[in-house]
Write a structure and sequence with these properties.
The complex is a heterodimer. Chain A is of the alpha+beta class. Helices cover about 35% and strands about 40% of the residues of chain A. The radius of gyration of chain A is 27 Å and the shape is rod-shaped. By secondary structure, chain B is α+β, with helices and mostly antiparallel strands. Chain B is built from two helices and four strands. A four-stranded antiparallel β-sheet of chain B has the order 1-2-3-4, with helices on one face. Classes of the chains: A alpha+beta, B alpha+beta. At the A-B interface, helix 1 and strand 8 of A face helix 1 of B.
């Protein structure tokens, strides 16, 4: 009788152990799925924010400004020029060290890789020309796809080399 | 003897209940994963849709409101307004992802494009843009 009692108790302990391990597995898998979702959402949010920030920036320079694509230190950068009190200022948008940066400088001054402010960290941007369109592509470091948007500025724009 | 017989059903009940709870836990786990997958997919497809729709509207502007040129530039070989994207989307889905571009005209000067993004039968995102002829240089 005593031996049977021990087996019963052992079974209960084993069953409890099984429940605990299943609970831990469930919580761990749930946390993993949540983490994955957050990563995907963050990635999409970062790409969308940076893409549409640049698109809106281009559109805001359509009336009085000039839009240019220029090569600086072997990378194609976006240069948006505007005249303020007889002085032309250039706003540069470019990728540097895995981040998208923006800097406003006087005309003729070229930006360095560390100049300006980070718009979005952990993402890189590429510009291409396609007939009248500027193709903007953003890739984030943890992302699985490239986000691309085409922009058609109302004003004339140039691609300089 | 009577005591032993009375313990057998209890033992069986314990096993049945434990199997039931385990099955329930696994079922909820599977449901949660399916939901998580759907959420992630929807988020991804909405982003794709927004980007493609925005690009379609901008391409329309670049082609000065000319529907056929726009459709051609977007990759619609049949010029029927259905632009299939599965090959370019880098997604692991058997369902076709495509958008339809519908053009409308108002009073001869205003051209509109309505872009609706689909994945299979499901409508994911819709966007519309307009272009006044003569607005672009």
């Amino acid at each position: 009788m005593n031996r049977k009692h021990i087996i019963d108790s052992l079974f209960m302990v084993l069953l409890f152990g099984l429940f605990v391990s299943v609970c831990i597995m469930t919580v761990a898998s749930g946390a993993g799925a949540y983490k994955r979702n957050i990563r995907i959402n963050d990635d999409n949010y970062n790409k969308r924010t940076s893409l549409f920030y640049i698109v809106e920036k281009i559109h805001s320079f359509e009336i009085d400004g000039a839009i240019n694509l220029c090569v600086v230190e072997d990378r194609l950068c976006l240069r948006l020029d505007e005249r303020i009190e007889n002085q032309v200022y250039s706003t540069w948008i470019f990728s540097s060290e895995g981040n998208i940066r923006e800097v406003t400088l006087e005309e003729g001054i070229l930006p360095k890789a560390t100049d300006g402010q980070e718009i979005i960290s952990g993402s890189t941007v590429e510009f291409k020309k396609e007939a009248k369109l500027i193709v903007i592509s953003v890739v984030s470091s943890g992302g699985d796809r490239e986000a691309t948007v085409k922009v058609c500025p109302k004003t004339d724009w140039r691609s300089e080399r | 003897m009577r005591e032993t017989n009375s313990k057998v059903p209890l033992f069986l009940i314990e096993i049945i209940v434990s199997i039931l709870f385990l099955s329930l836990s696994l079922a909820y786990c599977l449901k949660m994963f399916a939901l998580s997958r759907t959420l992630a997919d929807t988020s991804k497809y909405k982003s794709c849709a927004l980007e493609y729709c925005q690009s379609a509207v901008e391409t329309f502007k670049a082609n000065k409101g000319e529907c056929n040129k726009t459709l051609e530039a977007l990759g619609d070989k049949n010029l029927d307004g259905n632009i299939y994207l599965s090959e370019n989307m880098n997604v692991t889905s058997k369902e076709d992802a495509f958008y339809t571009a519908k053009f409308t005209y108002e009073e001869g000067t205003l051209c509109c494009i309505e872009v609706t993004f689909y994945r299979g039968e499901r409508e994911i995102y819709a966007l519309s843009g307009s272009y006044y002829k003569g607005e672009n240089k």
